[in-house]
Design goal:
This protein is α+β, with helices and mostly antiparallel strands and 193 residues long. The protein has a domain of 93 residues. Helices cover 18% and strands 22% of the residues. The strands form two sheets. Strands 1, 2, 3, 4 and 5 form a five-stranded mixed beta sheet that branches. It has a two-stranded antiparallel sheet with strand order 6-7. The chain is extended and about 75 Å long. The model has no long low-confidence stretch (mean pLDDT 81).
Length: 193
C-alpha cells in the first residue's frame, strides 16, 4: 500500500492547480519547498447543491462509482457543509419550553440546507520568519527594589503597559489531576474517580 502524496503549495488553490511538488512526509515536503511546511485541509471551489454535480465537476480527481484513482492521489474529498453562515462564537441562547397540545417542546426545525464542496489536504509552505526564534526575556527586578527607584511618569507608564512575566518557568505537576496520595502511604499514587 502506498502513502498519499500530498501537494506542496502556498495556498489551497495553488495546491489544486499548480503545486510545487508532492510528498507524503513533512521532512520531504520541507526539503522540496526549501522552507517549513504545515499540513492543512481546506475547502476550495464553488459549492454544489448535490453530490452528483460535484462528482461530475471534479471527474478524475475523486473516487466514485465509475472511476477509481491511485492511492497516492487521494488528497481530495467531497464534504457536505451547511449552506448557512457559520454560527457566531459564544454561548447559544437558551430555549424556553413551550407547553402546547400536551407537548413540552415545539416541533424540531427542519435540518439545515447543505452544499457539497471539494476539500483538499496539502502541505502549506510557511513564510520565512523575519525574527529569530523565541528567547526568554531577562527577568527584570521586581518587588520592593523597583518601588524604591524614582521613575518619571513616562517610564512608569511604559512599565505598566508591559505584560506580566514570570520570574521562572512554571514547573510541571508531580501528580495528575485525578490522582491522590493516600495519607497512610504517600509514596503511592491512586486514581481518584
Amino acid at each position: 500500500m502506498s502513502a498519499v502524496r500530498y501537494p506542496i503549495a502556498a495556498n489551497a488553490e495553488a495546491a489544486f492547480s499548480v503545486p510545487v511538488g508532492r510528498s507524503a512526509r513533512r521532512t520531504d515536503a520541507s526539503a522540496i519547498a526549501g522552507a517549513d511546511v504545515d499540513f492543512l485541509s481546506e475547502a476550495i471551489g464553488p459549492a454544489f447543491a448535490t453530490r452528483e454535480a460535484a462528482l461530475q465537476a471534479y471527474a478524475g480527481r475523486l473516487d466514485d462509482e465509475g472511476a477509481s484513482i491511485a492511492p497516492e492521489d487521494r488528497y481530495c474529498e467531497l464534504r457536505e457543509l451547511s449552506a448557512a453562515a457559520p454560527p457566531r462564537p459564544g454561548r447559544a441562547k437558551p430555549v424556553r419550553p413551550i407547553y402546547r397540545n400536551g407537548r413540552r417542546w415545539p416541533v424540531a426545525p427542519s435540518p439545515p440546507e447543505t452544499v457539497w464542496r471539494l476539500s483538499i489536504s496539502y502541505w502549506r509552505v510557511l513564510p520565512h520568519a523575519a525574527e529569530p526564534a523565541f528567547t526568554p526575556p531577562v527577568p527584570e527586578p521586581t518587588g520592593r527594589r523597583t518601588r524604591t527607584v524614582a521613575m518619571d511618569p513616562e517610564a512608569l507608564k511604559a512599565r505598566l503597559s508591559q505584560p506580566l512575566r514570570p520570574v521562572a518557568p512554571q514547573q510541571p505537576l508531580d501528580i495528575g489531576l485525578f490522582e491522590v496520595r493516600p495519607p497512610d502511604a504517600p509514596h503511592i499514587l491512586m486514581p481518584d474517580e
